[in-house]
Amino acid sequence: MKKEPTGNSLDERIEQLKMKNAAESLNLIGRLLVDNREMSVWEHDTRTLPRGARRWRRRALKFAREYIRPLAPVADLNPHDYDPKPLLAAAGRKGFQTLLYPWPFGSASITSYLKNFALQVAVVGEEFATECGGLALLLLAHNLGIVPLLLSGSIRTILKYFMPFYMKSYILGNPACMAFAITEPGAGSDVEETEGGAMAKLVTTATPVPAMGGYILNGQKCFISDGAKADKVTVYAKLAGDGIESWTCFLVERGMKGFSVGRSERKMGQRASDASELIFDNVFVPKKNVVGKVRSGWANNRNVLNYSRPVVGAMALGHGRGAFERCLEFCRKTHLGRKRLIEYQDVQIELADMMMSLWAARSMIWQSCGQLRCYQSASAAAKVIGSDTAFKVCTQAMELMGDHGYLHAHGVERAWRDSRLTQIYEGTNQINRLALFEHQMSTDFAV
After folding, report:
1. Cα atoms in the Cβ-side hemisphere of radius 13 Å centred on 433
2. Mean pLDDT of the chain
3. CA-to-CA distance for 148 and 251, rounded, in angstroms?
4. How many CB atoms lie within 10 A of CB 154?
């Protein structure tokens, strides 16, 4: 015969005190005010999203586990040998490469798009980066290449480029992508901040040739994500004889005479995505390939960063979450003495601290890109909080796992390396702090 709990043992007393059981002693109103559902933070957060973003987050989780997870270790160890085309094709067929526009130009949900298109990309970015930062960047850098076209506000540009790409990528599943090129050997993060931009040493120059109906581009870009794989690149170049105030965005297409790819960098983190050098040697770009207005490149670039920085923060968040999830699983399976690691309160406190840090960062990221228009202060802050938090959480995960945290098989050291890069690109975190301060300088800084 089964004995009823006497309440004498410690385990029985703990069980009786748990909220799920304690709520049963409340009256009806009290029970209605208690949420006893056993639901993860991920599920709770997902349910707060607009319907379209909610759907894309669920799709991204499934895609990341099915396509990115098995490829991640191989792509990280052999970044120059694996074939990315099957992954790009699968992402295209699933609609992840056309998330910046609703039908008939893209696959974005119209309800989320009416609020802020960055939110859908951000939730997808977190899911992809949870499995692998390099493969996430491989897929998402393409969106960065497209954004200048979108923010140019040109109907002609949208009709000419977005619908054909939607057909090619989403309908036909061809592995096509674009890239975004602003960084030069002598001008990195400084071109992502006003004071630095004014002093930047730019070498990529566009010389007008009215007789030919276009411009001749000469110069060099470096560290361009997907640069070696992109079919088209949005390139920022100053006009001959002028400075960055003349920056103009040009759409350069693979196959244009004089346009070539140089070296591909060997990186510490996000290795599965290439970072390549682009070379422009008397490349003729027709006038129709000017993105937006001539001399509007600086404003266009700043606006692009306002929309892309929260997404980078979300990708960084994914790196931290991936490290946390792997560390949590390790603590569940690994014994120290007679108990599993997860049964020690010191370990529980550390894991709770990691979870809270990630949760707080996600809240800020979603808040920053959950408004109709992204703005400089919130975007810069979201990128900094996301990437700094991710690096901290990855470090905590490695410390909890001890020697096992350094093993490639667990994936935590990969997340640590991947997260470090998010503190550098899209403007270093120091530059982003300056961007926040610049945007608020004329206010009373009331927070």
Report:
1. 8
2. 90
3. 10
4. 16
Q: Could you tell me the CATH number of the domain that includes residue 145? A: 1.10.540.10
In the 3-class helix/strand/coil scheme, how is the chain assigned residue by residue? CCCCCCCCCHHHHHHHHCHHHHHHHCCHHHHHCCCCCCCCHHHHHHCCCCHHHHHHHHHHHHHHHHHHHHHHHHHHHCCCCCCCHHHHHHHHHCCHHHCCCECCCCCECHHHHCCCHHHHHHHHHHHHHHHCHHHHHHHHHHHHHHHHHHHCCCHHHHHHHHHHHHHHHHHCCCCCCEEEECCECCECHHHHCHHHHHHCCCCCEEEEECCCCEEEEEEEEEEEECCCCCCEEEEEEEECCCCHHHCEEEEEECCCCCEEEEEECCCCCCCCCCEEEEEEEEEEEEHHHEECCCCCHHHHHHHHHHHHHHHHHHHHHHHHHHHHHHHHHHHHHCEECCEEHHHCHHHHHHHHHHHHHHHHHHHHHHHHCCCCCCCHHHHHHHHHHHHHHHHHHHHHHHHHHHHHHHCHHHCHHHHHHHHHHHCCCCCCHHHHHHHHHHHHCCCCCCC
Residue 348: count of CB within 10 angstroms of its CB: 13
Nearest to 306 by CA among 125, 146, 123, 432: 432
pLDDT in tens, 230-253: 999 999 999 999 989 999 999 999
Cβ atoms of 275 and 227 within 8 Å: the answer is yes
Number of domains present in the structure of the chain: 3
State residue 269's pLDDT score. 95
Looking at the fold, whether 386 and 320 belong to one and the same domain comes out as yes
CATH number of the domain within which 221 lies: 2.40.110.10
pTM comes to: 0.92
Residue 32 counted as domain residue: no
Q: Examine residue 9 and state whether it is found in any structural domain, yes or no.
A: no
Residue 3 has a pLDDT of 47
Query: Tens digit of pLDDT for each residue in 423-435?
Result: 999 999 999 999 9
Domain that includes residue 217, residue range: 180-295
